[in-house]
Amino acid sequence: MRAVATDGRGGLEVLDIPRPRPEEHGALLKVDACGFCGSDLDKVRDQALPAGRVLGHEVVGHLLEDGSLGHRVAVAHHVPCGRCPRCRSGHSSLCRQFVSSDLDPGGLSEFIAVSRVHLDNAVFALPERIGDLEGTLVEPISCVLRALDTAAGLLGAYPLPGVLGAGAPDGGHGGGPGEWRGAETAVFGGGGSGRTGELEQKDVLVAGCGSVGLLFLSLLRAAAHLSAAGPVHPSRLFYLEPDPERARLAESLGARPWSPEQPVEVAFLTAPPAFPQLVAALPEGAVLLVFAAGAEEVPLPLERLYRRELVIAGVRSGSPQHLRRAVEILGSGRLDLSWFRPLEVDFADLPAAVESYARGDVLKVVARP
Q1: % helix / strand / coil in the chain, to the nearest 5?
Q2: Which CATH architecture has domain 143-314?
Q3: CA–CA separation, 319 vs 219, rounded Å?
Q4: Which one of 89, 109, 218, 369 is separated from 163 by 20 to 30 angstroms, measured CA to CA?
Q5: Residue 92: burial class (beta carbons within 10 Å; 0-12, 13-18, 19+)
Q6: Does domain 2-136+342-368 have CATH number 3.30.530.20?
Q7: Three-state DSSP state, 7
Q8: In the chain, what is the straight-line distance between the N-terminal and C-terminal CA atoms, in Å?
Q9: What pLDDT, in 10s, does the model give residues 78-110?
Q10: Domain boundaries, the chain
Q11: CA proximity to 208, closest of 288, 129, 146, 327
Q12: Is the model's pTM score more than 0.90?
């Protein structure tokens, strides 16, 4: 079968490799489409993976049942166990099973073997109204949802004692010394892992308006419609993006340009070069959620972190529950994806398309076998 693999020189090449064989109780999936994302590019360029590694984790395809095409599904790459201390503390992407589980091979191949643990936890049937291209967004949307939940939780991460002692005399949200906000409902509906720390009426900045940054803006804009517990939406949305066309897309989603003079309470970083500017400009008590990778080192002045009590955290993947919510949100039809016009290419054209993606000439690339 055909596959696109790393060439060991910082690029990709099309190869012919053996079709994988599913493990017992697993399944074979015929790939219909697979997105290529920034983390894939990072692995090809910065991590310099050896030749022959097949990447791709934004997968849509059909399960094969008795040799025939079965359900059309979205498939995620890794699966946490849900039981270990890291999973129970909210760090499912650091779970040992998450790190060790993977698709065989990656989604940039004609067929992949899907394990039983994937079938049970990371394979989701796609309703007809979700096309193949939109289906490749299930995995990245799950990542963004987890980042939003994490940021909302971090807004309430500091203890909230009564400032003058026990309780809050004004009837506010004081509580007793050391009392922490709960963790009951998700920011964007659905039960389980989301937290009650609110993004509602917060000024929010998205730094970097590539496809992931625009997904952040789309989901933040749609939050009032997607929350099961009532309106949960930022007061104002801001963006930081030097590219004029991407800036235009951000403004089409209701965001306005940000300047360092404009205080925001929450910032999502998807473009590493913006990190120093954000740390220098964020006001006291702000939350900075880092959703970006790269080999470059960035300065972190401890004086600013300490004096301003900034909260900085990283999130790098979704969980099975966030995947399920992503499918529900896409199926609702309420998410504005008017900006999502990926470059569709055949496997043979993917290496050249990735070069365009690396230069920033295209917003997103989706490959078809």
Answers
A1: 30, 20, 45
A2: 3-Layer(aba) Sandwich (3.40)
A3: 17
A4: 89
A5: buried
A6: no
A7: coil
A8: 10
A9: 999 999 999 998 899 999 999 898 899 999 999
A10: 2-136+342-368, 143-314
A11: 288
A12: no
